[in-house]
Here is the input.
Amino acid sequence: MEGNSSASYAGIGGVGSNIWPLTGPEVVSREKLKELRVRTNGPGLYNLAVHVLALAATASLIYFTSGNPWLQVPAMLLYGTVIVLMFAPLHECSHGTAFRSRWLNHVVGFAIGAITMRPFLYFKYRHAAHHTYTQHDERDPDIVPFPTSLREYFSMILGASFWPKLVGTLVRGSTGNYNEEERTFLPASVRGQVSLEIRLLVLLYVAIAAVSVYFASPIALIYWFFPRVIGEPVLRAIRMAEHTGADESPDLLANTRTTLVNPIIRQLYWNMPFHAEHHLASSVPFHALGKLHDHVEPHLKHVSKGYIQVHREILGEVLRLQREARRAA
Here is the structure.
């Protein structure tokens, strides 16, 4: 393993590392954990069916509003939101907890990875590093620095750094020329498999583009690419709420935020708003996170009532930092 000890990969099968010893999971007893971590296919298949139906319903809105941009653009945003929220089942499959069957986690994970342009195997190892080093300012590959200005805040929401990273992942993965950060969470033994998946995805995207050009068809743009792009800010806002403004410490009770949301978002985001609970016990399937929340809520430092409240607090702090910067100038 190049330049790192095996502790770098602890998140794939364990919690934390000797470099960043995570605390907090001790509030969940072994008996409770054993009760909640039981995996089954039913809830995942149900949630997947609901998500597919939501995709079909919102895609039909695009079709029926064709020719009226004042209606079609909002329809695309709604459809795109449902698409980007597929990040949740992709994420759950990467933990092997969306379904009991291992092959089902992989098949669904690969399929959603293709739709959302997130290579499944690459994400699996990157996300494992995020769990191992949650909120470590150097080793957490998904840490979101707190915005110090309105410009930085809206840049994050619009994905100014996300899209270059995504394109870079596809380019580097296709060539097998991974950067230094990626080599810390991608063991040498799996890089060939990760590159193979990425090359197949890139070939798929090139084929879709070629067919679209040959037949002069806008279908892929209207029902996939454009909605996928314009929906991303919704996911950026949700993902910012998960850790931004929380403690940059190894205390899982304080470095992750749970957000209490309405049943529709909770359904389409596969219970991931219970994010502190997920980090405390990532082996607990999504459908049991509500029960885990009831068990650990008194111990959690950051529990917010909705994403609007979270972003109101973030923006309030951003404005305060801007005022301080102006006074110091």
